[in-house]
Amino acid sequence: MTAPPTARRGHLVDTRPLRESPAFARMWLGAAITGIGSQMTIVAVGLDIYERTASTFAVSLVAAFALVPMIVFGLYGGALADRFDRRRVALVAALVAWGSTAAIAVYSWLGVPDIAPLYLFITLNSVAAILVQVARSAMVPRLVRLELLPAAGALGGISAGVQLTLGPALAGVLVAYAGFGITYTVDVLLFLGAFWGLYTLPAMVPDGERRRADLRSVVEGWRFLGVAPNIRASFVLDIVAMTFGNPRVLFPAVGALLIGGGAVTVGILSSAGAVGMLVLGLLSGRITRVRAHGVGMVVAVAAYGASILLFGILLAVTTVLPHDVGTDITEANIPALVIAAVLLALSGAADTVSMIYRTTMIQAAVPDIMRGRLQGLFTVVVNGGPRVGDLYIGMLSVAAVLWFPPLLGGLIIIVVCAVFLRLYRSLREYDALDPKP
């Protein structure tokens, strides 16, 4: 007897969205190529600023300066995506993002000593990237069948895993051995993948009555959350997880002071979570067939918090039992580095499970004419949360020891998840076959 298709796939990722929708496949591949370069620049900018200032707080200011513009343009970008052709919105935003990346590269080659232009260019780049992400996410349900949306989300996890694995690792190596100018220039070249992936898409005008892209349209998106408890809960959980459980601004200091290894260690720690994302995405076959997306999302966020908590404990142990470390990778505390990378990989895997369920809930339960605005809100949460977290950890690391922010943050995440699972009945009863916002 022939096994049913789902049984044959087993644990491996469901690739039907790529096979059935060539347009989705091109957009997915283009985003992956571009994302590698973007992650290189994000890591390189952090290293660049830390090298100039020797201050974790100065690194965290990248997030602080970009936060308000990202929120404003993320929300407005959602309104644009519900008013105009989403393909065109994404293309224009990608052009701005590419130009700001080129400006960062020129700034580096010129050797400008002032760091203020670097903050300005990376903020512009982050804002444009938000608009691209909003429009791209809103287009997925128009390119992929409803029942394949979880599989498309898993493929998105693989793409993110590749980006976050290769990008930071390449940044660490290139910065250490070739310099910042080369690193930024490689991103400029890789960004061309975004244009190919988006330009080949068909026109994507929203279904339904389109409103003007103004404040009233944005407010309608907020009001929709008032009657969408499951979507609202998913937003809050992600904000909590990304605010209190994202220790990335600590990595330069960890590489210099606690574990050692300098830029190479920063690259390893920055890409470790992405390795977990990539592996989980490749083995997501059964996960994408789970119907209880609400419960699955909450449990995954709690697992993420537990991984970050253990990472904080590890840093505390390296403080209590210090080793002589240096900024060369041969002078690093290798056992601590390996354990830290494993814990961060587990956090990446848990985050991917949460992302698959959360993204599918938004795409399946939200009407197309509202999807851009909800994706805008969601993108603000996804991208704004880590930046608030960067500021939280940067400020707390000044007032306390380096290991305290992730330890406290992990505890907060676990407690919040327990409360949500107890209080939100709609999350406990959510069924993917009958999606309700």
Automatic annotation (TrEMBL):
Superkingdom, taxonomy of origin: Bacteria
Question: Mind telling me which residue stretches traverse the membrane in this protein?
Answer: 28-50, 56-77, 89-110, 116-136, 148-171, 177-201, 222-244, 250-283, 295-317, 337-357, 377-401, 407-424
Pfam families recorded for this chain? Answer: MFS_3 (PF05977)
CDD domains on file: MFS_MefA_like
Q: Which UniProt keywords apply?
A: Cell membrane, Membrane, Transmembrane, Transmembrane helix, Transport
Keyword Nucleus present in the record's keywords: the answer is no
Q: What are its GO cellular component terms?
A: plasma membrane
What is the membrane topology listed in the Swiss-Prot or TrEMBL record? Multi-pass membrane protein
The primary site where this protein sits is membrane
InterPro entries xref list: MFS_dom (IPR020846), MFS_trans_sf (IPR036259), TM_effector (IPR010290)
Residue ranges constituting the Major facilitator superfamily (MFS) profile domain according to the UniProt record: 186-437
Q: Does the keyword Transmembrane apply?
A: yes
In alphabetical order, the GO MF annotations are: transmembrane transporter activity
Subcellular location(s) per record:
Cell inner membrane
What PANTHER family has UniProt attached to this entry? ENTEROBACTIN EXPORTER ENTS, INTEGRAL MEMBRANE EFFLUX PROTEIN-RELATED
The protein's name is MFS family permease
